[in-house]
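Thought: the user wants the 3D structure for the chain below. I'll pass the sequence to the structure tool as-is, report back what it returns, then summarize two notable features.
Action: structure_tool
Action Input:
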Amino acid sequence: MVQRAAWLERRFSLDLPISMFPNVLERLRGTPARVADRIRGLPDDVLRKRSGESWSILENIGHLVQAESLWLLRLDDYDAGLEALRPADMTNRATEESKYNEAEPDALLETFRQARRGLVGRLEALDEQGAARSAHHPRLNRPMRVLDLMVFAAEHDDHHLVRITELLRQAGA
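Observation:
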């Protein structure tokens, strides 16, 4: 099996035409359903099991919930006309401190669904000019349009879905 790339080593081609905005929006809209499909019917011990220091399935989902606030704050940065997007907390402190392994899986999924609806709603309100706004991404050290932020968020979603799948394989589920 091909190994997934570490998130911090990823580089992104940020060259999609603005006409791909609706496609990327649908990808973002569908992530909560894909997560729900991956974990439906799994026992709690599988959902809560950590692999060494690596997050459990529920902690990965919780991290996706945490990331929603960053995507929204970055949309605020675009709205404010800032030159640079705010940086992410690369320590993931909020995820580590949130005790997602104590959460009820259905409640956590609903929290993610609601948060993602908020993001999708903000994005749906944009026109072509709004989708093309640009600001400097601090870690990638390059300009990023709103459309590129959407691709980045969708890739982040997929990165964690792949990790969930890896954890499911390890558990034999």
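Final Answer: Structure generated. The helical segments are 21-39, 44-48, 57-79, 93-97, 105-124, 128-132, 146-171. The two ends are 17 Å apart (CA to CA).
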